[in-house]
Amino acid sequence: MKNYFIGIDSGGTNSKIIVTDKLLNIKSKFNFKSIHYTQVGAKVFSGFINDKILFVLKKSGLKINHCCGIGIGIAGARSPNDKNAIYKELNKQLNFDKIIVESDAVISLFGALGGKDGIILISGTGSVLLGFCKGKYYRIGGWGKILGDEGSGYWIGIQALKNAVKEIDDNVKFRTFCRILKKEHGLIPENLIEKIYRTNYPIQDIAKTIIRYAEKHNTQCIKIVENAVTCLINHIKIFIRKPEIEFPLKLVLCGSILESKNILSDKLKDEINKKYKNRLNIEKPVYEPAKGAIIVYKNRHS
Q1: What average pLDDT does the structure give for the chain?
Q2: Residue 206 and residue 158: Cα distance in Å, rounded?
Q3: Is 99 found in the same domain as 243?
Q4: Is the Cβ–Cβ distance between 113 and 132 less than 8 Å?
Q5: CA-based torsion, 194, 195, 201, 204: positive or negative
Q6: Residue 154 belongs to what domain range?
Q7: Which residues have a Cβ under 8 Å from the Cβ of 234 and sit 6 or more positions away?
Q8: 235-255 per-position pLDDT tens digit
Q9: Does the first or last residue of the chain, that is N or C, have fewer Cβ atoms within 10 Å of its Cβ?
Q10: Residues near 111 by beta carbon (within 8 Å), at least 6 away in sequence
Q11: Is residue 74 located within the same domain as residue 132?
């Protein structure tokens, strides 16, 4: 196939690469485990992406010189310096310059809205609200796991861990979170420091467990879920206050936590419909983020 595009969605946990024709019809797709840009830097990360692109080309029987462009969205690539560093490294390693590097949130925005006005609220490994209205971008949150990402998978995992160590310190008789973390994740007081501080432990994976136990009516897990919903609603509340925004607007819920049906996503939708019924219309995404990466490329080279 000639005249094709490649779209890459490199999230905090998983990556997806798609190949489309010029009309954005998907011809093939591939899923990989991610490495996080902020942990390995531009050179190592670009080498990882380069290897995956070469794998996709080989599997699909494609030549790089027939590619019309590559759009990439990367978790943690927020600043122009980050994007430029990745572009330069990947350009050098792949020997190809038709590349656009953006954050994973931006490609989610373009994919979910199909390039039209609206907002997206993301909760996966991290969390952020992005808007695109009358040619202007808006961003609420998305400050990363240390400064923000409230209501995200990582944030939920941290809340569970903090509750567990409080149970240990307070010598609580019925250690709810200690019991859950031991049973589901093999985390016990004796290995907690080693696992959390000295290994690249996937703290965000704990969120799935907390949500599942909340659905089993565990009151303490329900409390964490409700706090996560409050944090995500606060992103919307800040956006709604902006006087220049015209409503109603389309709202798409994105990310692994909000795209699946669970107690958290259900509670969030109920709150949005109750508080912002006449201003925000919850709709399904038009395209997936990987296709949004291609839309970003095409928009900037049209």
Answers
A1: 92
A2: 8
A3: no
A4: yes
A5: negative
A6: 116-285
A7: 150
A8: 999 999 998 898 999 999 988
A9: C
A10: 285, 286, 287, 288, 289, 290, 291, 292, 293, 295
A11: no
